Amino acid sequence: MKNLTFISLLFGALMFSTNAFSSELDSSECKSKPIDKERSFTKNLEGVFNGKKLTYSASLKEKILYEKNDASAPLASFFYSEYIVESNENRPIMFVFNGGPGSASLWLHMGVLGPKVVKVPSDASDDGSAPYKIVDNKLSPLSETDMVFIDPVGTGYSRAAGCHEGSEFWGVNEDPKIIAEFIRRWITDSKRWNSPKYILGESYGGIRGPLLVSELRSGDITPIEINGLLMVAPASDYQYLVFHPGNNSPHYGFFPSYAATAYYHGKVDTKKSLEDFYKDSKDFSLNEYGPALLKGSRIADDEKDRLINKFSYFTGLSKRFIEDFNLRIDPSSFRKELLRDEGYSVGRLDSRYKTSDYIAGGQNSDTDVSSEGFMSAYVTAMHTWFAEIGVEMKMLYQSGDSDVYLGWKHPQKWKGNDFGYVNTVPHIARAQRYNKDFKVYVSCGLYDLATPCFTAENFMNDNSVDMSRVVFSEFEAGHMMYNHQPSFDRFLKEVNKFISK
Question: What is the biggest distance separating any 2 CA atoms in the chain, rounded to whole angstroms?
């Protein structure tokens, strides 16, 4: 799960044995020694998912990738969690990853898709301390598809190997190439070339997913068409997410989530339902607020006053505060200001959460209280589940790593041109044009102040995507909408339907 995404908030301690990879060898011999054996842990299990009784294998496995022109020179060690239903060779297969960049796949794995999931409070209260509630996931998509949860290099147990460094794989252009190579290898080794193939990514997965579709279908090795792309709280076009002077796109994209957050915390004076209020905020943002920002200093005083009044109505913020920010309020300032009179800041990944800060004043909150509200439960659940299926590793599972996030290379090339803002949505439109079966599912949470719903709606409509072939679904929840039980149930029903159709 997890951004712009999941963020530099998901930093864990990195501990692994020095003999785990041949990278300990000096440069004169490391290329000459392939890794002897890929590690694998598997347990056969039974379960009932969406009313279907299934026998399946649950595994943590390692796959070593080698240099293109030297089968004895290891490139990277990919670890992945795999769920395969018995005796169905052409069953759909779904490849799953989270975001960050620098996040492992445990958030989607243990939060919503796996056969076991952890339950954190649905009402946006803190998860507290162990023991946490880990339960059977009766709605898991395992009833419809086999699943492979991918941990990119530098996350989970995955690491660079041989003479290579992790930073070689950390970048907008580099990342999809190495993951596409992993997927090709997995399909070949598992003899699953004729299975329907789906890709599901969360947050920065909205960057990785479209690029991966493009890399797989038109790569220079072996083209593979994808049946469907599922994006959860996607960050796919940074123009709509990065608050830079002169870039107004995120301001009118974030605004409806400000309105929904204010409504949730009782800061607006209205008798309308959340659904109607949120719809009105989108209409205002698209038809009045956005065009007014385009005028810049050309806006007339009376129009600016009218906009400030409406901005205040939708968000509960004072007119003075809105005027001081010249109608351009960034999410950090909003999170700190909304409940300042009550002594609280609200969360980033899920603005339903609130907490007091060490210092009530200032412009920034101490932390993202929403991520503090569930991280420990997920990490505990992942290690608990691995122990249940017999995993024995000498290093700890790396849920997230600041080195990956901070070292990520952001330049993006599209047909030879460098982009200022990373934008992968054109790859979705291209896949639609050349694959009649390619379909897209986008889900988002109203209370997400990292990758808000309206930003996704805007960039999906702004890049030549055929929206008649896109399922777009909004939830009364945050970035990880599955932390909210009603949203968890609806999300899985929609994912299962999307795959089974």
Answer: 74
Pairing of strands 197-202, 159-160: unpaired
Domain end position, chosen among 326, 353, 372: 372
Are the C-beta atoms of 193 and 232 separated by less than 8 Å?
A: no
**428: CATH:** 3.40.50.1820
What is the sign of the dihedral through the CA atoms of 151, 153, 157 and 161? positive
- 220 and 254 assigned to the same domain: no
Report CA dihedral (393, 398, 399, 402) to the nearest 10 degrees.
180
Tens of pLDDT, residue by residue over 407-416, are: 898 887 765 5
- Give the model confidence (pLDDT) of 189-224 as tens digits: 999 999 999 999 999 999 999 999 999 987 666 889
**Pairing, β 354-355 against β 417-419:** unpaired
Q: Which residue in 207, 103, 98 sits closest to 155, CA to CA?
A: 103
- Which of 372, 394, 412 delimits the end of a domain? 372
Give the whole-angstrom CA distance, residue 457 versus residue 285.
12
**What are residue 78's DSSP bridge partners?**
63
